DNA sequence: AGCGCTCCCGTGAGCGCTCACGGGACTGCT
DNA sequence: AGCAGTCCCGTGAGCGCTCACGGGAGCGCT
């Protein structure tokens, strides 16, 4: 019952030897009691357990980990846990890791690319592998992860690392096809506000659009927030009032656009159809529910963990072609 | 450049001694090179670094942790990362932990109370402290966390553990006051669907309601989902068509109610005012934006980490009265 | 009595690393 | 030449734990 808390004085760590001495046995016997091993008398075992409890003993995970090489800890690095997409990815990774009994240390870089390197440096000496969504150049990544399995998420270009690729080409094509079938001919896109070049999702959009013989130049960059989506939509409609449908970089932007459309008095989907990307659960909460090119985030997490497992065990790693999550059009109320 | 991956054969761990041998120095010199210590020639240092890289050496966190007692890892146990409230709590805790250079291992029990014990058992030998939202009885908690600092979140009754208390009394009072000021007299509540007794939030509501001289008996239990909120609202309105305002257990339920109200053709807030609880960021995404009794989740996370720090260092712990996060009415479009 | 067996328990070794110390080689000074 | 001082580098010890082994005590059997 008495848990001796360190009261300002030297909180010397209680070791297995202290317990052994207190119980009048050897450290090995203590170890046996604690780990539920066989070769121990049940009376002795209870005595040891009591002593351990009385002293407030807790085994050192370091010492144990040093001798038993079984605990696996992987680091999950994401830009922003509050971004629902990454929340879903994280939840999926946690779930997949749990089935293997792995620990997951989560690092949120707060959308600051410069934090990535610091995080990576810390991480590199704390985990057995890394799963993450990085924006820093590959060379930097490589520098801090020497010899450690790394699985990237949503990295567009092929790298020397494993990467779970997100392929939305077919899904976006289906989305545009759907809009065209509904009679839309003027379709805009609210892209992600990247520095220079448009996103790969924009590429998918333009290919799909031209394949359907419609103009694909109606693009406005948007901040990756609901507000960003809203103002981008306003901007788009101001320049091109004849636009009747928009495809967005992701669901957050789409939801912002949805909200803005309502404020502008445009009914959805009659006067403006909206299709997002990601397929967040969140999309079902807004009204009307969001049509989206959905990603299977659970599969994404499972794939990442699976690949880490293979890299770690030296098994044959999954080929790049198997590490793909494809977007799939999920029809709902907004288009 | 060559990173010798374990190719099916015995993936023997490369130790500091291997690097030392390869570089023709002692292990201590290797340690010096890797840890950026002083007493080493820069040429030697480079040679060691090259050797380490060539061998794909990565220091063992266990061995390092065993001798340097500085890395702190805390476990964060939450029922469901996909529940936005817990996402915010987790993000806040991560942020607060980061400023201290602590690692955070996240465990998602998937809303299954029986998982809590298993998780706790694993956790108890893997982290230095636990922050979590548990539903299991205190006695069970105690059994698995002997001698380990534990900080609970939102635990209603006082326990022998530290707990960050959520006090919504004043906020809920303000919410009811606001509704009354708007002329509402028939105010319902969509409570959390607990087993037996109503939630403490419901208590706050009834006290606030009776204080304003209005009937507080209009309660319907709801699943903690948007759909749950929707059907609970439908049920409430079916039984009591004269209800013009609802207070909900949390924002998710409120958002579901909002959606359902729209479907029923009730305009918000004119024909139905809705006030939620939690103050999720999510509330700003729906239309109209949600009025809510908001919790400062960042403060919640910071408090939890702060308390853990004190428990860990043996400093004087924060008193229960300081470990309170108070709900505050945040007015928005829905009421 | 002697053997083998089971049931407990303890001892040495070692996991991979860092800390404290010691000591050689070289410099510059008296 | 002799000495202190600086700059490197290596050696023992030990962090706290588990594994492999050895061995004593007690039993029943031939």
What does this structure look like?
2 copies of one chain form a homodimer. Chain A has helices spanning 16-23, 27-34, 42-55, 61-67, 84-100, 113-124, 138-144, 169-181, 200-211, 226-239, 251-263, 297-313; strands spanning 73-78, 103-108, 129-132, 150-153, 162-167, 187-192, 219-222, 245-248, 273-278, 291-294, 324-326, 328-330. With 335 residues, chain A is α/β, with parallel strands linked by helices. In chain A, the strands form 2 sheets. A 6-stranded parallel β-sheet of chain A has the order 2-1-3-4-5-11, with helices on both faces. In chain A, strands 7-6-8-9-10-12 form a 6-stranded mixed β-sheet, with helices on both faces. Chain A has 3 domains: 16-67, 434 Repressor (Amino-terminal Domain) (Orthogonal Bundle), CATH 1.10.260.40; 73-167 and 297-327, Response regulator (Rossmann fold, 3-Layer(aba) Sandwich), CATH 3.40.50; 169-295, Response regulator (Rossmann fold). Chain A starts with 15 loop residues before the first helix and ends in a 5-residue tail after the last strand. Chains A and B meet through helix 4, helix 5, strand 2 and helix 11 of A and helix 4, helix 5, strand 2 and helix 11 of B. Chain A binds a DNA duplex (30 and 30 nucleotides) through residues 13, 15-17, 25-29, 31-32, 35, 38-41, 44, 59-60, 62-69.
Count of individual helical segments of chain A: 12
The biggest beta sheet of chain A is recorded as:
6 strands, parallel
Could you please say which CATH topology of the largest domain in chain A applies here? Rossmann fold
How large, in whole angstroms, is the Cα Rg of chain A?
27 Å
Number of domains of chain A: 3
Strand content of chain A: 15-25%
Average predicted local confidence, pLDDT of chain A: 90
Structural class of chain A: alpha/beta
């Amino acid at each position: 019952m008495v848990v001796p808390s360190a009261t300002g004085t030297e909180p010397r760590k209680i070791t297995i030897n202290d317990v052994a001495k207190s119980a009048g046995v050897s450290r090995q016997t203590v170890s046996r009691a604690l780990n539920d091993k066989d070769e121990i008398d049940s009376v002795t075992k209870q005595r040891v357990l009591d002593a351990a409890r009385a002293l407030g003993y807790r085994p050192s995970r370091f010492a144990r980990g040093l001798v038993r090489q079984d605990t696996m800890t992987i680091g999950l690095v994401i830009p922003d846990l509050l971004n629902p997409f990454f929340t879903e990815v994280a939840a999926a990774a946690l779930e997949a890791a749990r089935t293997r009994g792995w620990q997951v240390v989560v690092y949120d870089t707060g959308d600051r690319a410069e934090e990535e390197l610091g995080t990576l440096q810390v991480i590199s000496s704390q985990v057995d592998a890394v799963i993450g969504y990085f924006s820093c150049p590959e060379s930097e990544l490589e520098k801090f992860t020497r010899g450690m399995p790394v699985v990237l998420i949503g990295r567009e270009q092929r790298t020397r690392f494993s990467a779970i690729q997100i392929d939305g080409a077919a899904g976006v094509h289906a989305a545009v096809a759907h809009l065209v079938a509904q009679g839309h001919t003027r379709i805009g896109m609210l892209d992600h506000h990247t520095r220079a070049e448009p996103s790969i999702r924009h590429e998918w959009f333009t290919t799909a659009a031209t394949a359907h013989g419609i103009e694909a130049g109606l693009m406005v960059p948007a901040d990756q927030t609901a507000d960003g989506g809203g103002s981008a939509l306003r901007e788009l409609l101001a320049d091109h009032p004849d636009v009747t449908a928009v495809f967005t970089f992701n669901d957050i932007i789409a939801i912002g656009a949805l909200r803005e459309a309502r404020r502008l008095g445009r009914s959805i989907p009659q006067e403006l159809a909206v299709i997002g990307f990601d397929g967040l659960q969140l999309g079902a909460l807004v009204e009307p529910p969001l049509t989206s090119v959905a990603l299977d985030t659970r599969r994404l997490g499972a794939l990442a963990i699976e690949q880490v497992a293979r890299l770690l065990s030296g098994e044959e790693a999954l080929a790049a072609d198997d590490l793909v999550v494809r977007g799939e059009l999920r029809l709902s109320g907004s288009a």
